[in-house]
Give the backbone structure.
Amino acid sequence: MRVPFIAGNWKMFKTGQEAVTFAEEFKEKYKGTDIKTAICAPYVYLSLLKNLFSGTNIKVGAQNAFYEDEGAYTGEVSVKMLEDVGVDYCVIGHSERRQYFGETNESVNKKLKRLLAGAITPILCVGENLEQREKEEQYLVVRDQLVGAFAKIEAEDAQRIVIAYEPVWAIGTGKTATPQQAEDMCEFIRNAIEALYGEQVADEIVIQYGGSVKPANATEIMNMPNIDGALVGGASLNASDFMEIIDF
Ligand code: 13P
């Protein structure tokens, strides 16, 4: 039984005070909800949010991590450090990291393997850009990303990974994939996982859609059979909007 999971990705937004204000407002609104949720925040606020959300079911996620535990890697944060802070989730391979910071399928695979050696749940992002969609290469691109990401990962680990389908052309553009386009790709992803790991893993794995998810379109997207959740950027910065999405 897949439990809906709706996560916010704050990207590089908010001051510390804004994070506190959000957490206080959101905690109040979230009471009594049984949808799984997490806020994936900049590193510097993870401890703060962990404390603010203690005693609630609201989880905290990072937006990236490095696969080595320690060493001369100026500017990086290791999975071990995130474990130390008690982080629950970690986004890996977001398109913005692939586009601006040289993330590759190979580095994504190494990061996933390191996360799976511990208890943090990875949220693996896949998705095609506009040019690839216009050339009708989206399924090839996503298949490639999946095969690269899951290389040499065993079935029992694979089913712990949350997959987020985020078409790059729908991120921050206000242009959402139609619910059917999102469903078609999420179904394709589930079938690809079945081909790699069999039916049981494919049935269990949680697949989110991300790309301009807002209160106004959340219901239609969440009602699709192969979409189990959402990865929400802009609308997760506002506690009321994010809560409305969770209440789809
Ligand atoms: P938006 O919801 O702002 O389009 O961002 C989606 C996203 O990239 C979440 O990771």
Q: What stands out?
A: The domain at 63-238 is CATH 3.20.20.70 (TIM Barrel).
